[in-house]
Design goal:
46% of the residues lie in helices and 12% in strands. By secondary structure, it is an alpha+beta fold. Bound molecules: FE2/S2 (inorganic) cluster (FES) (2 copies).
Length: 205
């Protein structure tokens, strides 16, 4: 419903219960129009530009494509640090940072991640220059199969920026959205606390 049409009709004397009913009907009509508009805009591939680890990456994807799928399967070269495990927002293996906040990239549409800074585990450090969390994971042998590791490293790296001196309980709480089927939790938490300690002098997390 065009707002000016609504204003005009209201202005010419639709009042009381009649106005309420009319308002209700107009809201329904507006909702239908919006749905139609949305349906029209979500069909077909769209060219988008993502900011991934500080690089602008242009890619063509359908609007229903998740950020995880886009990173792993549509970018060339691919960004495969975030892992596909459940694809349903329950395991945390696909965790990336959106403007510094951990999110499950299997639950985010790529089109909704434009205009945001996307950081994957690759963007936190490199084999030559790992960040404190990556280094602590290696030092404390905090992985077995490694499938959950990028998610844990990403979550913990973001958390230590918020809370540089966490307790074990706080680390456990921060990691509650990440699951490890191999059961490496004790070493993961140990690594997180070691990274916090190592970073307290250097502030490089
Ligand atoms: S793959 Fe995204 S939460 Fe499991
Ligand atoms: S190390 Fe295998 S799932 Fe965590």
């Amino acid at each position: 419903m065009n707002p000016s049409r609504r204003k005009f009709l209201k202005g010419v004397g639709v009042a009381g219960a009649g106005a309420a009913i009319a308002d209700h009907l107009w809201n329904e009509a507006e909702a239908k129009e919006e749905q139609t508009a949305t349906a029209q805009t979500v069909s077909g591939a769209t060219k988008i530009t993502l900011d991934v680890n500080g690089q602008k990456r242009t890619v063509e994807v359908e609007p229903r494509t998740t950020l995880l799928n886009t990173l792993r399967n549509h970018l060339e070269p691919a960004v495969t640090g975030p892992k596909l495990v459940c694809d349903a927002g329950t395991c945390g293996a696909c965790t990336v940072l959106l403007d510094g906040k951990p999110v499950y990239s299997c639950l985010v549409l790529a089109v909704d991640a434009t205009n945001k800074k996307i950081t994957t585990v690759e963007g936190l450090g490199s084999p030559e220059q790992p960040n404190a969390v990556q280094a602590a994971f290696v030092e404390h042998d905090a992985l077995m199969c490694g499938f959950c590791t990028p998610g844990f490293v990403t979550t913990i790296s973001a958390y230590l920026k918020k809370n540089p001196n966490p307790s074990l309980e706080e680390v456990r709480e921060a990691c509650k959205g990440n699951f490890c089927r191999c059961g490496t939790y004790p070493r993961v938490f140990e690594a997180a606390l070691a990274a916090a300690k190592a970073s307290s002098s250097s502030s490089q997390v």
